[in-house]
């Protein structure tokens, strides 16, 4: 290896002169022997120049240097080069091999490339599996893009309900670099496919609210279909004044007088005196029964109140109250997360410092669920599972005291005997290699988003990745 030429190549790469860098990296090698670093950076330079087939060949040479390592990064870069060169089948093989490298620190990049290549080949089921792996990879700092791509696959597979969940989850994880408008547009298509037209129009409205995002032809067609369906549904609803107002509701048969009984039908004018006496006695008996009806109703209500009072008293001794322990705990966590007043949920006997300690122990945007409770008439001890914003869990011991009919919190303590799940949502990257001139060159090399110019971006062998679209 010619050290002087190698240094010149690194300098050219660092300054962005990729044409010179590609030539110098090749010239620095002695013979045809593979040299991992030189061939890796030569491949990166060729990628920047749009010479994708040559870049794929350079990565293949670098892979022959077993001492160099970085197999996952090289295979991922080779897959990107092959996709750009139009060789999708070979790209699938490269990406698949990259996912098998246990030492590869950012496998989500290989899964994203694999999903994209499979989707272009029309293999939507396997593409969805790859996107799902990219989304759940703990090293992926921005899973929203993979989740949105998974939603696209579900829509194409005519599984709109699954697509809806994927897009909605993508919106939950969306960051500043994610295209929220595009995700909302995909969500609108999924809602339309599920015949949830009102939700579809809401999603399309959110997608175009910034005035910048333009719906694709398919998305515009889905929006128009949702609008037409809602308009047709509204047209079929009867108007408020469509009822016949010519009919008098008090005389639906018209002015026939049939609601007024005819005297000949009542028998009143044909009754004998004896029959009239018998009828009067029967009516008197009915009236006596009616007089006792009120007393019966009163006694019944009294019995109901007695039973209800006994039930409430029993419930009181068993720890029931209003608000309940769970209601108080939920509202306390919500108030602490939003920096609202918490005094109404805390025991009145606590001083300011004790209240501050309790509020400070509550994680932001966490939810609390009582899993076990030893409830008494005036005191309750509860075991509480707290789910953190990022999905982790903690266990707390919470003490309640009764104030009036309801419960308030008097103490909160973490239970460190129970371990919670840790949500590794923050991405990690390949560990930095020992500082060399090559590291400095690669670290300072400019990066660019392959999707912006249809030109994939390769991994630098020494630079730390800056995200899904950064140079590797």
From TrEMBL:
The keyword Ligase does not apply. The chain crosses the membrane at residues 293-316. Residues 436-447 have a biased composition (Acidic residues). InterPro entries: CellSynth/LPSAsmb/PSIAsmb, TPR-like_helical_dom_sf, TPR_rpt. Gene3D superfamilies: Tetratricopeptide repeat domain. It comes from the Bacteria. Keywords: Membrane, Repeat, TPR repeat, Transmembrane, Transmembrane helix. SMART domains: TPR. The keyword Transmembrane helix applies. Pfam families: TPR_16, TPR_7. Residues 423-472 are annotated as: Disordered. SUPFAM superfamilies: TPR-like. This is Tetratricopeptide repeat protein. It comes from Collinsella intestinalis.
